[in-house]
């Protein structure tokens, strides 16, 4: 019998199991079976959230059985209800009141809290009076409070730190359901929270927002643990990306985008038996559409939109997208959703500069329900539009949403073993992106020869353009660049030979500006964006 | 874009037909929820007038909302806990023997003094529904388990309100400010597909107690909220006025299933609540007939709001260059058409 992934919730000695990713907008289910000595992806389906899971599994099993009745019989595919499952869920966004004595100290605490997936609600005693501050803490949408101060307390904090602690402790006695996090010098006020006759809920003591390396990391880790439940899909995704980096022995970046939040993960394989170095950030503000889209978000969506709408209509469309993420796809809903995805990834990348400062990844994996209604090549372009890093990178899509469920396996070795079996099935190759930087605008700046198998193709390199070279999934090639003047492509030089892998989008030679500059005039900008997108999104009306 | 001819809807004659497989893949929700919990938000300083277990009826006062709360300080000479009420009377020793009554809500104690949220002026908060008080959390909320049933919406603005339900337009209609009639004062109007901020402001000024509408565009939402905030800032005592949005922001008609229910409720006393957004009513006898098994309603897209009959799972279909799980549905007697499964819903 096959080695069994001894994951949380998976027992026995199964020949097949389900992997379930239950998101806020999307339910993804996959059937994994042990075939010819290794685990294989047998089938996967994606439905809108709200469809009963047993019905989803019945469809999945039915399709696998119809496709290969013998295999289904050998694996005992019938009987979906009692089959083992690896399940992850999106933790619903929860409110975190972030309070401090002064605006200055609030800024530091907020910087850490904003990167933990909480919906933060900042407030300082400097700006709000005690009544408004109490109302903020008593708001039923708030489920935790982070009270922060420097370590040691700053001169602007010392005189008021006790009063703020008293206010929070009083609110906590009225809301026993609140989790209280006391950070930095505020931890010295913990006795106030213990002495109350009817004490508050959980009280956690945390280091200051400046402690750790990088600064704020221990506080972020604690807040992240307090937010996410054990089967949280984004934490599991980060673990799986770390294991994937070890399995492939490559630097891997993961971008997971959902209705309620987004995660960006950077993992480098360890050396000499060390574990992979993984850095992960979860941002609720980078959700596909935040609960109440503000004007800045509407502006960004308009800037990326290929659909002609005014700002009022765009605001309405975004609000409706939040309510019905799968709505109106047969019209221009799919393009609108991809526009929202672009703006969300841009917010994610903009909100994680420390990850952008790390060495570029060899492989970028996108995941999450936000991509479920776009064809692979269009996803590749959307990512290339907003993740602007000079160099060469392979793109892949976790099309069956397996990384989250695999990441929930506790045992690192088993997780890695399962990934080694499944990596080829779960990573749908989108293509390779080569993005030189530092070309002068104007005429052709060089040429590219792609040597693939028996055929070579050649093209002129014109700055500002996006060249597509057909390179199907599974094929590899060498892209030989020859520039007239030095450019930056990983290193600085004029001649480069880059190994590239094929995918649904082929090879994207992205000669556009880094960062991307688009025309100011809205109609011209829409034309440019539509021209790029239409080349990669067949079957859609322009 | 997928096109489908709009038929005459689902007929009773279809109720005996077997439902093709796959119907359970359509997301289901309740059209009418019996006895839900509703919340009245409270702010520090608000004075609850009821306790857990009390029965409330329409028009009964459940709390006094403090207007312009201010922070007061008192020496720590008495016990008390945060959230409890505090009051004192100060007798004026002068000739008139006037007595000043002060009251508020204890917030926290520090430096040997209580900080108190106090205020002189209060507005009564009345319950628009019959029910039993489930819990009172000063400064947070007051919850009531309603005796009646609820039709949920996606957004509510303004106050909890009550009035008789009037159908002002059809499901796809739209009402203009000039069309509002003072004869509708005291009513909650069903106004069809959408309404603008000017019509909302005018409706409130005319004494209309509420609006039920399919969609409210974001611009009109902001304009109306700004208008309401200006009125409140001017210390105008505003009559309760609530707006219930059933479906979203982009124009579409009220769903056929919801409209049938609203038509049945026409003339009955109903209430609008904000948390959760819902229309509440006490008339189980007026429930419309249940749709026959296999009925679905289109949730989004150009056919939004239409009811149809489930005709089976269509598998993966291409829509606008992407593949989606789809279903065949039949509008009236027309041939089945394929729609994305995600655009459908069914009611229990």
What's the Cα radius of gyration of chain B?
A: 25 Å
What is the SS-derived class of chain B?
mainly beta
What is the count of DSSP helices of chain B, taking H or I runs of 4+ residues? 3
Low-confidence stretches of chain B: 1-14
Secondary-structure element pattern of chain B, one letter each: EEEEEEEEEEEEEEEEEHEHEHEEEEEEE
Main sheet of chain B, how many strands, which sense, barrel?
9 strands, mixed
In brief:
With 542 residues, chain A is of the alpha/beta class. Chain A has helices spanning 53-67, 69-74, 103-113, 130-138, 155-158, 161-174, 190-194, 217-227, 233-248, 295-304, 311-323, 329-350, 353-356, 376-386, 403-407, 412-426, 522-534, and strands at 16-22, 26-35, 38-48, 85-89, 95-100, 119-124, 142-148, 179-183, 203-206, 252-257, 262-268, 277-283, 363-367, 391-398, 427-435, 446-452, 455-461, 466-469, 476-489, 491-501, 507-510. In chain B, α1 links the parallel β17 and β18.
Write up this protein.
The complex is a heterodimer of chains A (542) and B (348). With 542 residues, chain A is of the alpha/beta class. Chain A contains 17 helices and 21 strands. Chain A has an 8-stranded mixed beta sheet with strand order 12-11-10-13-14-15-21-18, sandwiched between helices. In chain A, strands 6-5-7-8-9 form a 5-stranded parallel beta sheet, sandwiched between helices. By secondary structure, chain B is mainly beta. Chain B has 3 helices and 26 strands. Chain B has helices at residues 197-205, 218-233, 256-265; strands spanning 28-29, 33-34, 37-41, 47-48, 55-56, 61-67, 70-75, 85-91, 99-110, 113-118, 121-126, 131-137, 141-146, 149-152, 155-158, 161-167, 187-190, 210-215, 242-248, 269-273, 278-281, 295-298, 307-319, 322-330, 337-340, 344-347. In chain B, strand 22 (295-298) and strand 23 (307-319) form a beta hairpin. The longest helix of chain B is centred in the middle third of the chain and has 16 residues, at 218-233. Chain B is elongated and about 85 Å long. The relative contact order of chain B is 0.19. The model of chain B is unreliable at 1-14 (pLDDT under 50). At the A-B interface, strand 3, helix 1, helix 4, helix 6 and helix 11 of A face strand 9, strand 23 and strand 24 of B.
